[in-house]
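Two proteins, back to back. First:
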Amino acid sequence: MTQTSAKFMLSRRDVLKGAALGAGAGLLGWKTLFGISRAFAQEMSGENDDLQTIVNLAATAELFASTHYLAAINAAENGDLDLDQTQVDYLKTAFISERDHYDLLLSLGAQPVVTEFYVPDGLFSDKAMFAQITEVAETTFVSAYLAAARIFTEMGETAFAVTAAQISGVEAEHRALVRQIGMQLPNDRSYQAFQFANVSGAVPVLRPFLDGSGDGFVGPVAPPTDDEVAAIRAQSSALGYDGSIQPYAAMAPAMASSGGSESDMSGAVMVTAFGQNVNIRSMPSTTSSPVGVLAANTATAIDGQRMGDDGYTWWRVTGGGWVREDTVDEQAGAADLPMV
């Protein structure tokens, strides 16, 4: 990606009003290119986004965020972006949490609509621009997850509504830290903004980052590799990052079962962690990232199974993620669950 001395300054006001979306890129072209015409139709008609649309767009945002933060971390460590070590550590923990969110969404069947991204030229060498643009993105993410929480509530999917709120809270923390980097008051509001009725309402704001249609945008920037993700994850403990907190969607079935290994939840099949905490993995492999923890002697619902490359059966947790058969005690009926 090229960097030039010319700085493209994109104000938050301009982005939120769509001023940088590109005059030649109409709505029809966007819909045709990314195949999410239904999402736009729902936004315009007032119909709610469906579950697949929500998780696909959320996964795209999380992949973009982790790509963005990794580029900033690398620029800072190379001396191109003027950040101190504390600020770099902020970005590393933000990166890890964005990857945790992304892995959770993938475990729920999400498919990002794009996997490469574009940025304003000079973004990763100009501290003020970086703070300003990142605030725009995080403000948008917060609003999108609030929209998801509203929709999940109306669907009766309380566990997923709470999980969306959990993620929104973390995105708000990221917004605060980048405002601090930009020497702005971090906690500048009483409530996070509710800007969109639907998650798809965030797409026009983020469009320049997804297709490069904004004036002065360059790229594409490739997403992090597995090795790059692993290298920063390896610093989690030293950074003080807590990756043990579960998404509520994974906790709810166990809570509803009143702490037992048997459940009265409409025939849900449960597994119970043996006498120690068990990692809930994003994919059925011990090399995949944890997306939560099943606490010792507690239960959670499962809804499918898969044979892993390691020869073990992995159970798919209803709220997202996987646990291996030798770490849990499964309820009768687990073996009859579908292969997924």
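And the second protein:
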Amino acid sequence: MSKTTGKKQQVRTMFNKIAHRYDFLNHFLSAGIDFVWRKKAIKIIGETDPQMILDVATGTGDLAIEAVKLKPRKIIGIDIAEDMLEFGRTKLKKKGLSDIITLQTGDSENLQFEDHTFDVVMVAFGVRNFENLEKGLSEMHRVLSKEGMLMILEFSKPAKFPVKQLYNFYFRYILPLLGRVISGDSSAYTYLPDSVSAFPAGHEFLTILNEIGFKDIRHKSLTFGIASIYTGIK
């Protein structure tokens, strides 16, 4: 990340550049495991029978689309990368979901919603991109209704041999190469392993959620620790 440009602006520019190949790369580079992760995440929030759902850093809307099976009244997805949202809107039209899901430009650190608006706020692979993590989490806490649920799906750092070694090799060398060749952008898939490495995963992240004010905080490890689902209640 450049020191002359803020992280938020760089993330916006980077994701706008790869928007045309984002969905394909997500599924290809994860060997389709991302579908399984999202299904598990939505199953967890389904236990609360949410009617109003906010999907922060929605990208092209994959998590929001998966959440439709819960039959909520409304899902709003926000993202700072408008090109990603445009691809998402095209998907919604094809699937006939434009009435239940609305995608709009929005900043996770300055949510344009009233307090206590949503039953669930969810994020998939987005919180590590926040410029100010605590501010983004505080905003999500603010717009949640009382007893509302926060659900965060994010990459982790496997600790056990040989998954740790294989994961690190793939993330450091194979993934950036494939990402660059397929997307035509040299920065996005170099940034990915760096952002995962810098993210305060596991117990450290649970501590932050507790400090923000969430209760009943839980952590579920996925696929040998490659990803994690974090939940908390307001």
